[in-house]
Amino acid sequence: MRVLLVEDDHPLGEGVAEGLRLQGYVVDWVTGGREARGMLEAGGYDAVVLDLLLPPPDGWTLLREMRRRGDDTPVLVLTACDAVEARVRGLDEGADDYLVKPFDLDELCARLRAIRRRRAGQVGALLRHGEIAVDTAAHRVWRDGEPVPLTPREFEILVLLLEHRGRVLSRSRLERSLYDDADRIESNAVEVHIHHLRRKLGSGLIRTVRGVGYVIDAPA
């Protein structure tokens, strides 16, 4: 899951970025509104963690701009503005959630998982597909009731494809959610992860659409 973190407090931003990375997120961290605007317009994020009190343009402006141009990327506001009026305004402006500083990193991660589930139309943390069950909170996978160990990137690919069942995801789309821009990505990295998933979970689980990408077909 690729997250854009917009936070101008350097110690806090560094801590949040590192904490999210340890949880398996790919994080781009920026400290100002102008830089954030450019990255938001470029797109490609699964979620945005947005401070409101930023060097201009502020978070309010960025949020309004996103929603006015039809960008529905989930936004979790992370701010010291704790007044009820600010929370109401943030949600009405288009934020998907609102978390007040100081906060616990575990709660932030739980809220990001909840946003992700809602966007995928998923009620709880458990994803099921045939004989496969996935606990997205505990990062555990079972096949026919037997636990199956996956690497973090194998797990992320599996969750992405399950959340988008019936839709083909391109290799570049998967790479964006798996790797930081600073990573050296082998040209066949995604193919290797897909191969391992098929070996562990069944050769028929993930279908290759030649020249397009990969898909887990929706149940008939």
TrEMBL record:
Task: Supply the SUPFAM superfamilies for this chain.
Answer: CheY-like
Q: Which residues form a coiled coil?
A: none
Record key words, sorted: Cytoplasm, DNA-binding, Phosphoprotein, Transcription, Transcription regulation, Two-component regulatory system
Question: What subcellular locations does the record give?
Answer: Cytoplasm
Q: What is its main location?
A: cytoplasm
Organism in which the protein naturally occurs: Inmirania thermothiophila
DNA-binding positions = 124-218
PANTHER family for this protein: REGULATOR OF RPOS, TRANSCRIPTIONAL REGULATORY PROTEIN QSEB
Q: Single GO cellular component annotation?
A: protein-DNA complex
- GO biological process terms held by the UniProt record: regulation of DNA-templated transcription
Residue(s) carrying 4-aspartylphosphate: D51
Domain OmpR/PhoB-type: residue ranges: 124-218
The Response regulatory domain covers which part of the protein? Answer: 2-116
Tell me the protein's name.
Two-component system response regulator QseB
* Listed PROSITE patterns: OMPR_PHOB, RESPONSE_REGULATORY
- The source's domain of life comes to Bacteria
Q: Which GO terms describe its molecular function?
A: phosphorelay response regulator activity; transcription cis-regulatory region binding
